[in-house]
Amino acid sequence: MVLKTKERQQLAGQEKKADDIVFPFDSDEHRPLDTKKDDAPVIMEISNIDKAYSGDKKVLNDIAFDIRQGEVLSIIGPSGAGKSTLLRVINRMIEPSRGSITFQGEDTLSMKGRKLRSMRTDIGMIFQHYNLVDRSSVFENVLHGLLGYKNSLQGIFSLYTEAEKQRAVEIITELGISEQLYKRCDELSGGQKQRVGIARALIQDPKIILCDEPIASLDPNASRTIMEYLRRISRERGITIVVNLHQLDAAKQYSDRIIGLNGGRIVYNGNPDDIDPDTISRIYGSKLDELIVE
Ligand SMILES: Nc1ncnc2c1ncn2[C@@H]1O[C@H](COP(=O)(O)OP(=O)(O)OP(=O)(O)O)[C@@H](O)[C@H]1O
Ligand SMILES: [Mg+2]
Questions:
Q1: Ligand 1 pocket, residue 51 CB under 6 Å
Q2: Is 184 a domain residue?
Q3: Residue to mutate, 57, 63, 79, 90, ligand 1, most ligand atoms under 8 Å from C-beta
Q4: Domain tally for the chain?
Q5: Quick check: is 54 in a domain?
Q6: Ligand 1 pocket mutation pick from 83, 91, 290 by most atoms within 8 angstroms of CB
Q7: Residues with CB under 5 A from ligand 2 (ion)
């Protein structure tokens, strides 16, 4: 898909010419039909979140939004906007400087010990660089997703039940990589590795999957496949997908809702279809060139 003529004209004065912006996600054919998630229950409430890594410089500034069950929510914004920091604050890999987060009605920031571990198994994560154990097989990597449920001895000796192994095979098959079951992960393509990442998140039976730039290292075809799987997971399993993306077109096509971040603040929170060139400028500002995806 390329920009419509009107959008091109409006963007013409920007640093990056609209003609140079390439979108690999052609047409609207991949857009889900049932995009309306406004009435789904709120699963997470994020209020007044600030984060400063050091000193007073806030990289997240007064962030507040709700996440609804089963929605695909994309977070977009230029490099340094705070997207990764926000995802890490959500699962408490990073502590915010201020604010509150509730997950299924419970305050997550005061959780400790078993409660915190249980919250973390409810929230899966996938990454741009997959974070797989390269020398281990697809099967083993997916089973690693269960470690959050195991005590340390079971973990050290990789003790999995037959039912768990069976479930791993089922998920791997569902993601179309059963032929790779015993292959080492460093023998896989990027798209296959990311499917292993999704399978590893799925086996922990999460309520939410956080995805930090899951398609940033993939070619357009593999990117489409991954976005299709993520959307399917939300539709068929009711799992909420929160996904950081640089690719505006992918965000527009696969999301129920988009949040735009700039300089640590939310500058857009709404329907993908309502994102116009003004909104794009507000989100990306002078970093419009980051919209290039090929
Ligand atoms: N561990 C850290 N210590 C100090 N500053 C950090 C740390 N991690 C991120 N930052 C800073 O916080 C800001 C937000 O970074 P973050 O990685 O969240 O942005 P992002 O939107 O994910 O960017 P990108 O698109 O490049 O991944 C940046 O200015 C970054 O330099
Ligand atoms: Mg990031």
A1: no
A2: yes
A3: 79
A4: 1
A5: yes
A6: 83
A7: 83-84
Tens of pLDDT, residues 108-117: 999 999 999 9
**Residue 128 CB–ligand 1 contact under 6 Å:** no
What's the pTM? 0.87
- Range of 121's domain? 41-291
Counting from 1 in the atom list of ligand 1, the atom nearest the Cα of 261 is 21
pLDDT digits (tens, 9 = 90+) for 230-256: 999 999 999 999 999 998 999 999 999
Which CATH number is 274's domain given? 3.40.50.300
Which residues lie below 8 Å from residue 206, measured CB to CB, with a gap of 6+?
Answer: 121, 122, 123, 124, 239
In a domain, 166, yes or no: yes
Determine if ligand 1 sits within 6 Å of the CB of residue 77: yes
Q: What is the DSSP letter of 175?
A: T
